[in-house]
Records
---
Amino acid sequence: MDCRKLTDSEMIDMMRSASLRPSLHRLAVLRYIGNSHSHPSPDEVYRELSRENQSLSRSTVYNSIHALVEAGLVRELDIDAGGKHYDLAPQPRHGHFVCRKCGLIFDMPLPEGFAPMSAGGFMIDSIELYGRGLCPECASSPAESAV
Ligand SMILES: [Zn+2]
Ligand SMILES: [Zn+2]
């Protein structure tokens, strides 16, 4: 996984090439989703950004996320982890893992040779791979072995 942090000017370029006006709010939202690697929910994005900017409204954050999704820069994860979660869209292909205990979503490498192939007349745009279970931390917590 390429976990290099994107710079603001790279993100502004991404928005420009997606024909999206790079407003400060959109930049802040993209920066958080792209660089936190935490697959946040809209509420988490709002909570985090409103700490630095008290006047930020929830709807501004939601609208910014929506605009970034429409522009193809952020994608909504098709994952059942209690509400919506978002990830940076232009990224190497990877799967996701949801911990059933702490609820965190982790990036998961795809199995070797895993690629969508178009066969039998189906033109597959994407295949999502999701794993579910316990993250290393929860798996090694003593409470879990008692369950
Ligand atoms: Zn966990
Ligand atoms: Zn991810």
Note: Residues 8-88 form a domain with the Arc Repressor Mutant, subunit A fold (CATH 1.10.10.10).
---
Amino acid sequence: MSERGRQEPLRLRPHHIFCDTFLPQGDLGRGEEFSHALEEIRELARQRAGVTVVVTEGPDQLCEHCPHYGNGRCESPMGDEEKVKRWDAKILAGLGVSYGERFAAGELLALVREKAPLEFCRTRCPWRAFCGVEDSVD
Ligand code: SF4
């Protein structure tokens, strides 16, 4: 990411804001470009808690590096754009935030840790066996 890029806000959809905290490091099976983009976002949020994150509706800057992204939408066989938007809406409501809102990354991370796991995580998320959200709470 360029220096100029670093000053721009991160555009992240709700499940990327939320789930990224609990997903394992390393290869998520979406190729090198996706892993690299994910690691850059994680690094930036870790190193600069003040970096702005915009809660984004629909495909975000991480989707743009995903092999399942096509025609401006998520085309994953695990859940296409319509499904993903429904998951995003549940996470949005669970966090109590709105699309277009801006937060410092550190503030958002604290909110995610306060609210996790959501009811959706425990009961409905198709990835729940894969993530560590249940182990993240005492
Ligand atoms: S395109 Fe779909 S599978 Fe890929 S990162 Fe975006 S929401 Fe996830």
Note: Residues 3-131 form one domain.
